[in-house]
Amino acid sequence: MSIEAINDFVIRFANVNGTGSASANNMFAKAVFRMGVPVSPKNIFPSNIQGLPTWFEVRVTEKGYLGSRGDVDFVVAINGQTLRQDYDSLMPGGYFLYDSTKSLPRDFNRKDISEIGIPLTQMCIDNYSDPRQRQLFKNIIYVGSLAYLFDMEFEVLTGMVKDQFAKKEKLIAPNIGALELGYNYAKEHFDDVCGLRVQRRDNVGNAIMIDGNSASGLGAIYGGATVCGWYPITPSTSVVEAFEKYAKKYRVEKETGQNKFAIVQAEDELAAIGMAIGANWNGARAFTATSGPGLSLMSEFLGLAYFAEIPVVLIDVQRSGPSTGMPTRTQQSDMISAAYASHGDTKHVLLIPCDPAECFEMTARAFDVADRLQTPVIVMSDLDLGMNDHMSRPFEWDDNRNYDRGKVLTAEDLDGLAERWGRYKDVDGDGIGYRTYPGTHPTKGSYFTRGSSHDEYAAYTEDSSVYEENMERLVKKWETAKDVAPHPQIKYRDKKSKIAAIFYGTSAQASYEALDGLEEEGIVLNTCRIKSFPFHPDIGEFIKEHDTIFVIEQNRDAQMRTLLINEFNIGTERLRSILNIDGMPIRARRIKRKIERMLNGENVSPFTTAKSGTEVEA
Amino acid sequence: MSYLKSSFRHPESPKNKLGYTEANYEGALSTLCAGCGHDSISNSIINACFELSLEPHKIAKMSGIGCSSKTPAYFLSKSHGFNSVHGRMPSVTTGANMANRDLTYIGISGDGDTASIGMGQFMHLVRRNINMVYICMNNGVYGLTKGQDSATSDLGSTSKKGVPNMYEPMDLCELAISLGSGYVARSFSGDKSQLVPLIKGAIKHNGFALIDCISPCVTFNNTPKSTKSYEWIRDHKEATGTFDLVPQEVEIKVKNPDEVNETIQLHDGSFINLYRQPEGLDIRCRESVLSALEDSKTQGKVLTGLLHLNPDSRNTHEIINSSKRPLNTLKEDDLCPGSTELEAINQSLR
């Protein structure tokens, strides 16, 4: 029985990296989007430049479920190295499109799938002479075939080619030619073979398609960042690249041609955050972006910024750890190390976006929060969110919005002070002192910033009670932070239900989908999406209200669950983990099966990862 | 050490163009050991800033960790100071400088802070040519941790611990010259007449300026067999020559014009007059200076003075073409593209 579906299936492309496949696959995804059908593309790529296996998964999802579903309905198998794996991964009833220039090995004899052989290599040899063109157009040809097989509007694809090559017009005709080659071959040989369809809908509204890192880079522009120190590391590099791209567009003085930004590529992550801290200390808005290993290197400086109370924004695009781990695979495994980064008693404000619109908003807002609280703010994105295109609600900006620069004294303020000013004096009772920028006043407001113990006037001290008071004031500031940071999104599907789920970041989409599925079966869970750390007290209340709370996240050690237990001192029994650590985005189907089995009283492991690649088993 | 600082100053102390006396440039009482070379360097910084009539609040004092890095508390109390983390002053100063190009940045570091834990950051600071003065208070020893050899300690030099140093030393000046620094000097904490003009020249120089200042540690490294002791340096110091810094606004009057070897104009219009330069030394030529440094080492001497000067050096802001307006003064109007542009971006993503 072949799978039949309209606007609801998963297609996986298996390619060799460095062959231009990602842009062709993205073109396919974007075409679905332009037909008004929600889509979710995921690039699963190696830490390599050329020659290793890479996959690209596109979920066509009329209902708008943008998380990873799990299971594959259609495979485009272009990579000989992984042919077996790709063949076996297909769902029964699925479709296997392969390059039939060479026939499939004899032991490829599944009877439960449909094989679609298209002689891609031969078609390229016959139609193109340039080796690079032969490689690139192979991708375009299969996209053309898919357009036929899925009954897509061909003009949408040709329109995309025209958009993409608007500045290189001579490339338009050959690309359209390649699409037609594929389309016509499929039409001649595989008429009525495929039961999957993409049909025009009006389900994307005013949504946009963009990757989270570009959104963060743009958020930093809108948030007023001027200085960026950074060190290249996958998957965070494109945050700074986007910042630079937009800065060159929006931040150049018309009269002088000079830049209203300074981007310095540092010698390492220590220097990167050192620069960001130095610039913020001096009154500019500055940030850096990194991933796991960089976060480890930045720890000492984060402690300095915490203790000396210097605002700084760090965007952590998490990847699979520990150590070098899997640099091109996703995870949410920096949560604890970011929350408590650095030696001594330190804790940091975390903002946790779940889609590109939030990457934009939270990055812009991070600068306000950091300035208000005079402390590091870490935006916890991840590889899935940062590097894949996501369908997202559009970016918004209120032109009346002013930057909140926090408590900063001007020269006039200093002259008007009745009392002696102390940099670390808590005059308002919120744990936050007033700062001055260097160069403000000829005789007032200078102070010595230091990571060593200091009194209210920033003078060095080893007086135990003064040290203690200062540390306690920082706890008061931490309380203030709970209100300043974004509040959790709590949803009661059923006020009487005693079961619930807590999740955050990129675990959210798949979790919501899983819970919708459970609700259809009569199992109703209330939800809490955590958007920041320190935790808002509402989260503690939410935990108390429920008997069983599934904490769904993408790391081995249940890091968010640990943070919740640690911060609220409750819930060891009722907080149950559902975890994914295979480096792929967590899948909705697996979350659903796991919750079903756990609620059924089965003694199952918290991991949703299927052994030996079988995607069906939970 | 003393525990009280006298507040008495001579009522007729000389005033500079801002009407300030030297007292306006002083800091808190030093907590370093009595006789520490670092305190003399602090005093020379005070003299230099006073003589140049710099506004104290337009100076930022940057440091890392160690005895040397504590000194910014002991000069310029009206300036903001930043005592950062060990070996990382360069990156913090880089960020601060990017945020506000109009302040004068004086970075204070030591030989441990620079030549060991901070070597990476130091080298990149030099090659980026951040506009700042970098003074390494170099005593060849870790003072705060009580006497370990540092990476600038000479081979065979013996500190109070009594064990001769077994490793080759780093020469910060040679490094800085090879990395393209446009102002490189070596001096001695005990030679104020040389050090004060060097600091003034460093402040006036456009770009990164290094002063590697030998500063004996009286407690741990002032032994007869140490090459960083007062006695040894006094006996083995040799100067490239002397020089004057003539600020831009002063009419040039040279006392003995015959003695001037060369006059070099700096970026801001000031002049440096070089006197009594040795035959064959061209401080504008890197090869010439590197060879002079190596020659004096062979002869067991320490070459001091202004070692290298490139008046055409371009600082980081000029290299990256950043705005003449300090970035920390820009407001929403300059920084935020606004909602109309954002809608256009949204539209391009559909």
Descriptive overview:
The complex is a heterodimer of chains A (618) and B (350). With 618 residues, chain A is of the alpha/beta class. Chain A has four domains: 5-197, 3-Layer(aba) Sandwich (Pyruvate-ferredoxin Oxidoreductase, domain 3); 210-392, Rossmann fold; 411-484, no CATH class; 489-613, Rossmann fold, CATH 3.40.50.920. Chain A has 19 helices and 23 strands. In chain A, the strands form five sheets. In chain A, strands 11-10-12-13-15-14-21 form a seven-stranded mixed beta sheet, with helices on both faces. In chain A, strands 3-4-2-5-6-7 form a six-stranded mixed beta sheet. Chain A has a five-stranded mixed beta sheet with strand order 18-20-19-22-23, with helices on both faces. In chain A, helix 16 (507-520) links the parallel strand 19 and strand 20 (526-530). In chain A, helix 7 packs across helix 8 and helix 7 crosses helix 12. Chain A is globular. The model of chain A is unreliable at 612-618 (pLDDT under 50). By secondary structure, chain B is an alpha/beta fold. Chain B has a single domain (22-320), classed as Rossmann fold (3-Layer(aba) Sandwich). Chain B contains twelve helices and 13 strands. Chain B has helices at residues 37-51, 67-70, 89-99, 111-115, 119-128, 172-178, 192-204, 230-236, 286-298, 316-320, 332-335, 338-348; strands at 59-63, 80-83, 104-110, 132-138, 141-142, 148-149, 183-188, 208-214, 237-239, 242-246, 260-265, 271-275, 302-309. In chain B, strands 2-1-3-4-8-7-13-9 form an eight-stranded mixed beta sheet, sandwiched between helices. A three-stranded antiparallel beta sheet of chain B has the order 10-12-11. In chain B, strands 5-6 form a two-stranded antiparallel sheet. The longest helix of chain B is centred in the N-terminal third of the chain and has 15 residues, at 37-51. Chain B starts with 36 loop residues before the first helix and ends with a helix. The mean pLDDT of chain B is 93. Chains A and B meet through strand 9, helix 7, strand 11, helix 9 and helix 10 of A and strand 2, helix 3, helix 5, helix 10 and helix 11 of B.
